[in-house]
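non-specific serine/threonine protein kinase structure dump, as promised
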Amino acid sequence: MDISHLLLRFFLLLLLAFSLDDAPHLHYCTEAAATTLPPPPPPPPPFSFKFDFSNTYTYRLEDLRFEGTAAVHGATVDLTCNVAQCTTGRMSYGRAVPLWDRATNEVASFATDFVFKIVTPDNVARGDGMAFFLSSYPSRVPPNPSGQNFGLIAGDADDAGDGPDRFIAVEFDTYDDTFERPRPAGDHIGIDVSSVADSINTTSLNFSRNGAMRASITFDNVTRMLVATVQFTEPPGSRSAPPVQVSAKLGDPRALLPSEVAVGFSTANGATFQLDQILSWSFNSTLASPHPVTKGHHKKKGAAGKFAIVGAPIFLLLVWSILSWWKWRSSSRDIDKRTGGVRQFKYNELAAATNQFSSENRLIGAGPFGEGYKGFFKEMGRHVAIKKISKESKSEGSNKDFYDEVKTISSAKHKNLVELVGWCVKRRWNMFDFMCWCREKAHTIFLVYEFVDNSNLRVHLHEKEAVLPWTTRNIKPNNILLDKEFNAKLADFGLSRTADKVGKARYLDPECKKTGKFKRSSDVYSFGIVLLEIACKKDENSFAKVWSRYLEKSLMQVADDRLRGEFDERQMERVIILGLWCCQPNIDMRPTVQQAMDFLESDGPLPELAEPETSSSKIGN
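structure tokens r here:
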């Protein structure tokens, strides 16, 4: 525990001591004690809770357990974020919830009601959805879960069996993975018992409206019927649509789960972006909680009470100011260690170097991670490229990913990597930010790179009037910069978690989209797409179109006609065939990196490519 938490506990205890009454004198009555028995305690009330995340007075963070990317953001709980792939998030109630009584074997009836949103950014493949679950207490995210099982089961398994991950869940599925298992096509809600492959019952529901929905889930301990009802509450007018319902009869809950369970929400996304949000949540059970939350009551009177009312806020402000100053100083000292000593520029230095980020200094083809500007540092005597990335984050401590990536980028040395010169973070600081160092703040990240003066490959392939000759097309597109001799340097290396990924789906292995896992064969696939883009016409470089020409033995018809035939046809054919080979849907049919390089450098016979096992229309588009 760090010093900030110790100081915080100290002044809270002191505040409590000031506000307590003087200890009352105890009076003894021997006669009454001998003749009067205290009344029996009242029975504990049925277990229940109700949270409205737009009102911080209705919940306490200690009442909730957050795992993975799940966190409170403003008026919602975000289980995932829409700026990162392969995320897993889980929120559950922080205490054990009674499912059945060990002493009486009574099974609880329960009802839960929650408002939620499933939001997918425009022009991005949709994520996998989310699930409400009951599982063993305490809640834990299993190792390496995948999107297809909503983060409920370890790995990419579909069935938890009799292991510790067994569960009862209602899934809200937004990803069509019928190509992997026999499941209902399209969006649906379903009831799962320790398996997401064989739902007990499902009902179709269109989640594409991106509006708020209200779900109600009930379980009756007599009939053992679990019923889930969902209705859109946004946009306006959607309430008139009839609700969608799914129900199923469960087995004996005592054989499925322990007597005390965790209840909550779980989600996981593969190589997709999706924002799963909980706006409010209530839960009611017919059984009493085995661990009731007790609340103390006291009165404020006399001199101690007056001091607590007047003096405590002043004392609180003083201690909080000291804590804020200490936190700020500690964070500043720690930055150099986190970033490996890479130079931290001041914002004013970057503004002066870029003429206040003028449009004349803006670089074209800056890449998918942000705007780029050309700058010149007089004291260093060198030109630089400054990349500007805007984002939302929490406090300094939660930016650890960014600092770690700066350290990774700076330590990676290679002749074909653009050198990282330094970095800068601009925040909109004021006194309120200084005092509330835990609140969310908008800030802008600047990464300062060496200046590579010949733009990038995509510009030369598709945007400039001058045609890039065949002899210089031995390099990659998009985020690959070119010097005057057309040597390639990779930019934006290491920015996988720091910024949004835009325009990358074309180069992403379809196998990664399904499993969320990246392998060496995934890089081979991306290399194949790049080869097709370098060699072929802009509107003819998809796998499907090139493959059809390959079958017709007319590959030269897809070659970039702007080259006007000024190339070696054998080399062109070799490059295109290698591109098709690398893009094979079956990863076992793709070449290794070494095989691909040997194929390019040799003049051996061309391979006979097998017919793809899956539809090629979805590859490389």
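The longest strand covers residues 275-288.
lmk if u need the other ones
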